Amino acid sequence: MAAEPSHLVSLTERAIAEIVDADTIHALNAVRSRYLGRKGEVTSVLRSLGDADPSERASLGQAANRAKQAIEDRVAARRGEIENAERNRALGRQSIDVTLPGAGPLAGRLHPISLVMRDMVEFFTGMGFSIEEGPEVETEYNNFEALNIPDEHPARDEQDTFYLEGGNLLRTHTSSVQIRAMTGREPPFRFIAPGRVYRHDLSPRHSPMFHQIEGFMVDEDVNFADLKGILYAFARHLMQGDPELRFRSNHFPFTEPSAEMDYSCRLCDGQGCKVCSHTGWMEWGGCGMIHPRVLDRCGIDSDRFQGFAFGMGIDRAALLRYGVPHLRLLFEGDLRFLEQI
Ligand code: PHE
């Protein structure tokens, strides 16, 4: 076999050195086209064969073709290497650090008020109470009149009550549900009615919208002792301890007798602190024996049946349970706050 013409040998070596140097597909393509492209160096050797000495033409042509093949092979091999390296680099960029903390999806959670409300509802359903609901947009009749709250009563004042066009109002207490639940119903029964109520009021401890839970029970021989028994059990459950209860005589048009109830401050154990305004007591709600006139209005024979009713705020219980300083925080829906609970 004839020795390769020296210029083809050096051309091939040069090409191979450049192929090895190319480290991107783009650079490799450029090298290939420099030698094997339409105007490439090997291509032009092949094209000029016609001008070569006829005695050398055949061997020169074969040598040029071998050079072409050798370069083509190296290009293909190098292409494989570059593609592999690029794939590995891409995989490296996507590598997973299994030690990083996961970014879990934000799971929805119950609002502190819902948590407290559910806890209360669970307690009372365990005592045989059923849940009754009423609308937040209420009639004057259900919210006031049927509850024996006369026209001139200050509770009806526009300063307290949100009146709506057309004569309805936003219920100011859950006691309106007493009327809805009792009307046309035959005792015995016991209900609770948790829900939103509305009053013109705004301070750290008051919000124009807040939550109450109403409870009431009617039977032939229900008395105040039953009421106190239920309330003590409820207080023990809610405050997870053994709080004192205090009943102060009071006036509600829809109960007789009526009482306002307080529980001993749990933060100072009744000694007096800032939270309870140094009284040792916290206001809890109102209660009493359902006024016979209310029973009569609902079509219940008040000579035969008696009942008790109580109502208290839910929001303040949530404030105390979760140590929240301001009612507003409960209603703003700020996740930075809610996530702490
Ligand atoms: N409805 C009264 C209030 O909102 C509370 C209450 C309920 C009092 C039931 C007596 C009986 O203040």
Percentage of residues assigned to helices:
40-55%
H-E string: HHHHHEEHEHEEHEEEHEHHH
Number of domains: 2
Bound molecules: phenylalanine
Structure annotation, total helices: 12
CATH superfamily annotation of the largest domain: Bira Bifunctional Protein, Domain 2
End-to-end C-alpha gap: 89 Å
List the strand order in the largest sheet: 1-4-5-9-8-7-6
- Approximately what portion of the residues adopt beta-strand conformation? 15-25%
What is the overall shape?
rod-shaped
Could you walk me through the main structural features you see in this protein, from its secondary elements to its overall organization?
There is one protein chain. With 341 residues, the protein is of the alpha+beta class. It folds into 2 domains: 6-92; 112-340, 2-Layer Sandwich (BirA Bifunctional Protein, domain 2), CATH 3.30.930.10. The protein is built from 12 helices and 9 strands. The strands form 2 sheets. The protein has a 7-stranded mixed sheet, with helices on both faces. Strands 2-3 form a two-stranded antiparallel sheet. The mean pLDDT is 91. The chain binds phenylalanine (PHE). Phenylalanine binds next to strand 8 and strand 9. Phenylalanine (PHE) binds at residues 173, 175, 214, 252, 255, 285-288, 309-311.
